[in-house]
Amino acid sequence: MYNHSTQITNSTTLGELQRVLGDNLNADNVSAEQELRLKQLAIAYNKPMSTPISDLVTLWNDGDVQTTKVVVDTSDAEKRLNDQFSTFKNDVDASFTSAVSNITSDMSADIREYQRKHDRQTEEFMGEASRQISKLKQLAQSMRTIEVKTEAGNVDFTGELTHEIFEDVLTTMTCDNVYLVGGAGAGKTTLGYQVAKAFKLPFYSASAVKWEHQLMGQLTATGEYKPTDFYRAFKDGGVFLFDEMDASHPNALVSFNQALDIQVGMEAPFPCGMVRKHKNFKAIASANTVGHGASRQYIGRNKLDGATLDRFAEIDMRYDEKIERAIAQNDKWVTEVRTVRAIAEEKKMAYIISPRASIKGAMLLRSGMNIDKVRNMRLYKGMTDADANTLRKECKARMKATQESK
Questions:
Q1: N or C terminus of the chain with fewer C-beta within 10 Å?
Q2: Cα angle vertex 38, ends 36, 42, to 5°?
Q3: Chain centroid to CA 187
Q4: Whole-number Å distance between alpha carbons of 63 and 60
């Protein structure tokens, strides 16, 4: 019998299922009580209540072959962290011993001066140790091994920058559609491409639409059907990213909703006729808002129908600092950008300060451009003089205070 304990964590429930269903259930001889327990099993695995009894019997006997498992192995990164920290600790010990030796060699100095030097040395060593430990922990995180296992095979993402919600999105998409909510430049399109790579499926995308045919395709005057990426993913399988869905006209989403709602193997109407839904069709919608209409920053967004939002699992996609710093390769500049972003959010200013300001600004700085010009072009662009001056002043004060506290 398959071990269901990872999916059904309640031992009492699992025990009742084992008592009624047994070790090798026969699909041709299922009692009324066993059918009831199989429906309970379907709920535990997020399966539709309409799932055939024969499929549920197979699920009980053999497990869910379509389940995607995400394995995160940090053992190699942890070993590197421990080795580097051990080396750093030895260097600190040697430096501290040398410092103490130098201080004690001059016993004619005032004892209070000696104490001040000792305290200052200790504080400097401890501060440096704390900073190095923090860097090593970040190193371990960035070097983690992510291997995605599906029935299509394994995909290794070691060495690739993946967003902190990557595993959550993968796991959710084994049984549900995903609605990504994040600011401009959060990496939603890149994440969609990586999800397709993980499932070994083609990647398709479309942006905001005004008319239904932009999603569903259309017939020409000669009767020829012009397909879309949504049609291709729906019919042949693939990951379809509907980018900026909240900027689409709600009426254009009606057919899209219907196609999402039907079960695998059933048919949805397209202009060319009824099309069967492929078992490997997976949908991601990305948006800058939660679907309730325009916000301070994104004034051109529409309110989405509750029926549309109900078809998705919502996942918040924040700006990932690890990725932002790794791509920009300029910690000082990224810190300034992130500080201005935080202050603007605290003051509820309607400005978008995305990771593009960090990445493109760092590129301009490497090309030799003056930092004040870069600030005006990438960080404070589109702002009123009063707001820009406020952010400059508060950013300078906050960064100075942070530096002094180290």
A1: C
A2: 115
A3: 8
A4: 6
CA–CA dist 172, 320 (Å, integer): 20
What are the boundaries of each domain within the chain?
Answer: 11-65, 72-142, 174-316, 321-405
The CATH number of 174-316, from 2.120.10.30, 3.40.630.30, 3.40.50.300, 3.40.250.10, is: 3.40.50.300
Dig out the tokens for 133 from the structure.
Answer: 């430990």
What does 46-88 look like in DSSP terms, one character per residue? T--TTS-HHHHHHHHHH--TT--EEEEE-HHHHHHHHHHHHHH
**How long is the chain?**
406
Sort strands 153-156 and 145-150 into parallel, antiparallel or unpaired: antiparallel
pTM of whole model > 0.85? Answer: no
Of residues 250, 325, 313, 263, the one with CA closest to residue 284? 313
Report how far residue 274's alpha carbon sits from residue 270's, in angstroms, rounded to the nearest whole number. 6
At 243-285, the pLDDT tens digits run: 888 888 887 888 888 888 888 889 999 999 999 999 999 999 9
Report helix, strand or coil for 110: coil
Give the whole-angstrom CA distance, residue 138 versus residue 142. 6
Dump pLDDT digits (tens) for 36-48: 788 778 777 777 7
CA distance 350 to 145: 38
Identify which of 15-19, 35-39, 323-327, 370-374 has the greatest average pLDDT. Answer: 370-374
**Host H or E run for residue 361:** helix 355-366
> Both tokens of residue 29?
């001889």
Report the distance separating Cα 294 and Cα 348, nearest Å. 15
What lies within 8 Å, CB to CB, of 341 at 6+ separation is: 319, 353
Would you state the structure tokens that stand for residue 306, as one six-digit string? 């509750």
Over residues 134-139, mean pLDDT? 53
**Structure tokens that stand for 69 in this block:** 């498992």
The β-bridge relationship of strands 281-287 and 145-150 is unpaired
C-alpha 216/C-alpha 226 separation (Å) is: 9
Higher confidence at residue 67 or residue 232? 232
Question: Measured in Å, how far apart are the chain's first and last C-alpha atoms?
Answer: 58
